[in-house]
Design goal:
The strands form six sheets. The protein has a ten-stranded mixed sheet, sandwiched between helices. With about 600 residues, it is of the alpha/beta class. The two termini are about 45 Å apart. It is built from 16 helices and 29 strands. The protein is elongated and about 90 Å long.
């Protein structure tokens, strides 16, 4: 096995450069030939200039006797080929004994993340430090963002090698000299450049200097040493519980209460859940008591569920076999009944030793919840959060998985139901579905992550934090390599009126910016004006680089005595057919309904879009 202090994986070195005539240059290159990775020993000529600059910085600032090996993976292009990067890393791991590997480059999306993670972890266990630069466009990039890699970002605030700052964060470890500077190049022989690539080279030099004085230091030792000598330290305030899955548990047999909008989905799509519904309950004044579920719901595929009868919550026998209560939104019920139903349910759960999953934030019931947990009961609920993600410097993850987003022109028009219908149909077709939900019931359907920003949530986070949090959730879903990712946004897309802040839809676009969907399916109402639908489509396609591929007509309209509190009624089949025909002519995109056949056609449209 060959032995070197540092390996540079880049574009090679220009051995004819006048400044490098006294340097000992060694290396090789990896290239693709008809899709196959080839190796050229002793051939590492730099055809771009970038590798020459990186070698020049490192060799000029590290200890004099440092041995450096250069590996070229760029060939004639200035873009990084993922397969060549992996091949070079795997070669170094097996054939070269070294202290540091400098990777002054990054890839924005990673097709083989597990493979990259594995090889980086192997280096880590071998006590070889991988030092990698972040992408210059400002996105998260690989391998710099990985936990077992020292990630380097550029800063224009520092002007020499001794100036850098330590970042207490998940991905970025240091920021160093990356502003405008003169470096060695190929043609011309010098260039004025800037970027994180060069900051990475300076930090590699710093690490090599540390290792000369402390040869037994591991990665954590080096980071701690450099931290004490950094010009500045950026502390983290990243205390938010980003992963709402942490406290989630899978119930087995549940009691559902009350039978409101959120619970309709749980009951209708219970085939997507991993639990059995034992009881469905409501309060006496709801007018639902003793009614058969099948007479109230559509979309359920379960005849047993359809035959269930809604019970009065005050008449429930609590020592029966259900293990968990799923408690929906009850704030309005508390007001109507002049009861504290939440406290009553918590006390019942404690007495009868039942677990609790709640759609409302239970932060103000902290004492009661602690008491419930202390009695060995499980509790899950979504809590409001005002603390965001720090020290990411705006960097966003990009995904290479196909992303479908369901948006709408208004609230209460079946957007979440449509997501569940699409989920069901894609799963039936055998696809692996990743999903980010925006409802508190999301995890109960087996969705991967949840970002709840709708009813009962008072979230004071601002634009950047919403985008960062949603983007991080999408990244976690993408890392599981699903065939497709489904998600959605709540309420409308563009405001009807601008009289009050409550009518504005900026939050939808904040979430959309975190999602960055490839395509959008837009839910529309029978009473929406065509020009308003067109505005919504244009807004979506202009704010995000996406395409609205279809509209889905929610078949409910207000009664003739239209008012703010009017009830909706279903449009007739004739009205629905005529509306779909007129809208197709006006919008020139497919118009679907919520029926089984239409959802099947919509699913096929989505699959064909990504297949082509």
């Amino acid at each position: 096995m060959e032995k070197y202090d540092c390996v540079i994986i880049d574009s090679g070195v220009d051995s004819s450069h006048p400044k490098l005539q006294t340097c000992k240059l060694e290396g090789m290159s990896f290239f693709l030939e008809n899709g196959v990775v080839r190796i050229a020993k002793e051939d590492f000529k730099d055809k771009i200039g970038h590798g020459t600059a990186i070698f020049g910085i490192i060799s000029s600032n590290c200890p004099k006797d440092t041995s450096i090996y250069n590996i070229s993976i760029f060939n004639d292009s200035d873009s990084v080929d993922e397969e060549l990067l992996y091949s070079a890393l795997e070669y170094v791991y097996k054939n070269i004994k070294c202290k540091v590997v400098n990777i002054s480059m990054g890839i924005k999306t990673c097709d083989q993340l597990e493979r990259l993670n594995n090889i980086c972890e192997k280096f880590n266990r071998k006590n070889v430090m991988l030092v990698s630069a972040f992408d210059n466009d400002g996105s998260m990039s690989y391998p710099a963002c990985l936990e077992n890699v020292i990630g380097i970002d550029a800063s224009s605030e520092y002007y020499n090698i001794t100036e850098f700052e330590y970042v207490h964060g998940r991905e970025i470890n240091f920021r160093a000299k990356g502003g405008i500077q003169k470096v060695l190049w190929t043609s011309p022989k010098y260039a004025i450049v800037q970027g994180s690539s060069f900051a990475c080279a300076y930090m590699t030099s710093n690490i090599l200097n540390v290792l000369e004085r402390h040869p037994n230091y591991n990665k954590n030792d080096v980071i701690e040493y450099l931290k004490t000598r950094s010009k500045n330290t950026i502390e983290s305030s990243d205390a938010v519980q980003e992963n709402e899955v942490n406290n989630f548990f899978n119930p087995e047999k549940v009691l559902i209460f009350p039978f409101n909008k959120e619970m309709h989905s749980l009951v209708a799509f219970n085939d997507l859940c991993n639990f059995t519904i034992s009881k469905i309950c409501d309060i006496r004044m709801s007018s639902n008591i003793n009614k058969r579920i099948g007479s109230l719901l559509q979309y359920s595929n379960d005849s047993i569920i359809n035959d269930m009868i809604i019970e009065n919550i005050d008449s429930v026998v609590w020592d029966e076999t259900f293990d968990t209560v799923i408690l929906g939104h009850v704030e309005l019920l508390n007001q109507l009944t002049k009861r504290d139903i939440t406290t009553e349910i918590i006390e019942k759960c404690k007495f009868y030793h039942k677990n609790l999953i709640c759609m409302d934030d239970l932060s103000k019931y902290k004492e009661e919840i602690n008491s419930l947990v202390q009695s060995n009961c499980k509790v899950y609920y979504l809590c409001n959060s005002t603390v965001g993600i720090s020290n990411q410097f705006g960097k966003l993850y990009l995904t290479n998985r196909p992303v479908v987003c369901v948006a709408g022109t208004n609230r209460s028009q079946g957007k979440y139901t449509l997501q569940l219908l699409l989920r069901r149909h894609l799963l039936e077709l055998g696809y692996s579905v990743g999903q980010l939900g925006t409802e508190p019931t999301s995890l109960l359907f087996g969705m991967d992550e949840v970002f709840h920003y709708g009813y009962s949530v008072i979230n004071t986070s601002y634009f950047e934090q919403t985008v960062l949090r949603v983007n991080r959730l999408m990244k976690r879903i993408s890392d599981k390599n699903p065939d497709i990712i489904l998600t959605g946004v709540q309420s409308g897309t563009v405001p009807y009126i601008y009289d009050n802040l409550q009518y504005l839809t900026n939050r939808q676009f904040e979430v959309l910016m975190g999602i960055i969907p490839d395509i959008v399916v837009l839910c529309i109402n029978p009473f929406d004006d065509v020009d308003y639908i067109e505005r919504s489509i244009k807004a979506l396609e202009s704010m995000v680089n996406t395409r609205v591929i279809a509209c889905v007509l929610y078949p409910m309209k207000f009664s003739d005595n239209f008012s703010t509190y009017s009830k909706k009624e279903k449009i007739t089949n004739v009205e629905e057919f005529n509306l779909k025909t007129e809208l197709y002519r006006a919008l020139n995109i497919p118009i679907f309904s919520f029926g089984k056949d239409d959802v099947s056609e919509l699913t096929e449209l989505i699959i064909n879009y990504f297949s082509s």
